[in-house]
Amino acid sequence: MTTRSVLVVTHTGRPEAVRSAQLVIKRLSAAGIAVRVLENEAREIGCVGVDVMPGTAVAAEDAEVVMVLGGDGTLLRGADLTRGSRTPLLGVNLGHVGFLAEAERDDLAATVDRVVDRRYDVEERMTIDVTVRRNGSVMGTTWALNEASIEKAERERMLEVVAEIDGRPLSNWGCDGVVCATPTGSTAYAFSAGGPVVWPEVEALLVVPISAHSLFARPLVVSPRSVVAVEVLEGTSRAVLWCDGRRTLDLPPGARVEVRRGTEPVRLARLHLTPFTDRLVTKFGLPVTGWRGRVRQPSHPSPAADGEASGGQRG
Questions:
Q1: Has residue 235 been placed in a domain?
Q2: What is annotated as the active site (predicted)?
Q3: Which of 54, 129, 181, 184 is most buried by a 10 A CB count?
């Protein structure tokens, strides 16, 4: 019989997350499930009887689920470990908004029980693959779950870029940067930059200029089959590429960033089939006072029913 195993990823900089990790490990171990922790987190967590794993994709291989204790940043770190193995991520929000998390800190014990009983669903989230070229040569490749952002590296200077969609030039922008996001990332950096909120089941790519000095600088929603490219113009200031706020690459003038739909999705474990609308309202504290819902029409008895009620006599 194969031993079940769960990888626990923790924001060890938060004492509450460490205490939560200790509780999770205790409950999972009591249920006979082997628990893995990352070697750079093991000392802070201080639990015995766990499997200490390197902080690489090997840690998530053959694991049943990865429980992430922290905020969205911690979950994005967990996504680095699981993307190749397709192990689902289950986030417990110990941060602020926590849009990617499925459970809150008050539900921790119940969440562990759901994992023990395998009572969760799994959904896939679209990612993006990113290629950086210069003079035709590949400078680097990376990926993102939320977004790839091309940003100016010097605060006092504007960045000059030209955007391209499916091999055709779209517009030049003098700007602070450009965000290329997934629907999942529409509530992250792209949202802060003025982009639209896109429901997760919508497959699309978002292009959002940041503080652009241009008459045409609206957020764009393009096909998931499109290839978006942003070129840093020669003679402009240096730029930097950030992917999910974690992976970075310097972009010299003349660099070209190509963004396309990712070949590998990220899988998220879901405990509740909550509509995304409800998640928006809860996470952003949106006012819904006065909502009455769909107006229900009163049911009227049929003429036959009326006749039966009066003994079947008419006239």
A1: yes
A2: 72 (proton acceptor)
A3: 181
